Amino acid sequence: MASAPALKSLRDSADLRHLRQIIAGLDEGVILVDPDQSILWANDAALGMHGVASVEELGTDVDEYRQRFQLRYRNNHKLTDADYPIERVVSGEAFSEVVVEVAVAGEEEPRWVHQVRSLVLTNDADEPECLVMVIQDVSARFEAEDRFEQSFNANPAPAVICRLCDLRFVKVNQGFIDMTGHDRETILSRTVYDIDVLERAEQRDLAKGRLAEGRTIPQMEAELGLPDGSTKLVIVAGQPIDIGDQSCMLFTFADLEPRRKAETALRHSEERFMRTFSLAPVALAIGALDGHRLCDVNEAFTGLTGYSSEIVGRPLGDVELWETPALRQAIEADIEAGHPIRDREVRIRSKEGHVLDCIVSAEPIRLGDEACVLWAMRDISVRKASERELVNAIEAVMKDTSWLSRSIMEKLARIRTPDAEPAGVGLDELTQREREVLALICRGLDDKSIARTLDVTGNTVRNHVARIYAKIGVNRRNAAAAWARARGFDGDSMPIPQRGGPTLKDAAA
């Protein structure tokens, strides 16, 4: 072990300063260690690879380094003290490409993956003067490999990987095992030609040539041999990849048997659908997503709109089926955005120019390889006319509600403003006092009774009421009560502070 004067001479030597200047800007991390196990210096890259800002935080010597950083191999086995790369450096061992995971002491999960090699700097007498640990942060590479391994194993698409040097299978996922019935260990002990993934391929010679050259193998049909001696029709393709330092070929497969069955079933389903479509009593139309062109209409659609086959192949905007261009644009925007249209009340224009109130729904479907939309329309013109007459009558009655009971007012308000999804501001936009005033409005109290209940002036109540109207967008008490009840707030469940005057029960009476 070097003496104290010798160590000081080493720390202050011009050679060491020059060495520091050379390696300070390297991307690789460099840690200089004295033969007496003291950590002399580290460049910024090495500090960053350990998440520290100074050499002191690495540890003054090898023992402190081991206490502050826990290392393990990639197989999760922890390193013994003697196996630490910094310990092996001090012992004078020459090594390269030792890969370890590094965790901060006290943490379970590692933060970095380091690839380490050693160097020994000697003096003129060929004695170790400075020991060097060179570190590369390979966390990103191994994280990418881990992600690939996880995605490969989790991918339901059947796949196998073989090494190009010997064509031996090195990886197989569960999808391939499920598709073929082969055992995993059996596959990994065989080669491409033992389990021939290119058997009876339609371009077998091309595929074999590409495999020998390590080039992409295009998709082609082939027949995979199964353990029971039968074969399975598949589409196979090959993609060259690198796993670590090895050149490999990734084979992926698509099982054609289920697809053929699905295509047959789909064809029969489409035939049944078209028969049902033609005979359905509801107005139906099929449109293409591309350009919103109509592909077909049924007899009920013709009876409702007056349009028959002359509308097929034309965009709905060209025939002006929707009442206004704005309505057409809004509906088409919802369809393109994938938003559902369920029982939406719209107005359409018939071929003769009559405007009809309708309920419209739209459902995305596929016909063959084309993405389409199935439109369903129901005429509600008679019902809407009756509703408008009822609302007009209610409007006339509600102009003077002084002689109506509270329950009748609420029922009329619900008929006039049917339940819908509440929009706009919510109850959270109102202050506590405004909610108290709104609760008393819902209970049928007038401004004077509210003022007595809350022990405030009439002007204060009128100001609160005005602010409530402005926030929720109404201008009458019954409309405010209807707005509140639409949001589940009827006022009965809200405690109202009693600040003098008659009780709430007396005021309501």
What this model shows, in words?
This protein has 509 residues and is α+β, with helices and mostly antiparallel strands. The chain contains 21 helices and 16 strands. It has helices at residues 4-12, 14-23, 44-48, 55-58, 62-68, 85-90, 139-154, 174-180, 184-188, 204-213, 256-279, 299-305, 316-319, 325-336, 381-398, 406-416, 432-442, 447-454, 458-472, 477-486, 504-508, and strands spanning 29-33, 39-42, 69-72, 98-104, 112-122, 128-137, 159-163, 169-172, 217-225, 231-243, 246-255, 283-288, 294-297, 341-349, 355-367, 370-379. A six-stranded antiparallel beta sheet has the order 2-1-6-5-4-3. A five-stranded antiparallel beta sheet has the order 8-7-11-10-9, with helices on both faces. It has a five-stranded antiparallel beta sheet with strand order 13-12-16-15-14, sandwiched between helices. Mean pLDDT is 83; it is low at 1-11 and 501-509.
What distance lies between the first and last C-alpha atoms, to the nearest angstrom?
A: 101 Å
Estimate what percentage of residues fall within beta strands.
15-25%
Q: Please give the order of strands in the largest beta sheet.
A: 2-1-6-5-4-3
| Classification by helices and strands | alpha+beta
Average pLDDT score: 83
Bulk shape: flat
- Enumerate how many helices there are, as a single number: 21
Biggest sheet features: 6 strands, antiparallel
Relative helix content: 40-55%
Oligomer: single chain
Structure summary, number of beta strands: 16
The low-pLDDT segments are 1-11, 501-509
Radius of gyration computed on alpha carbons: 40 Å
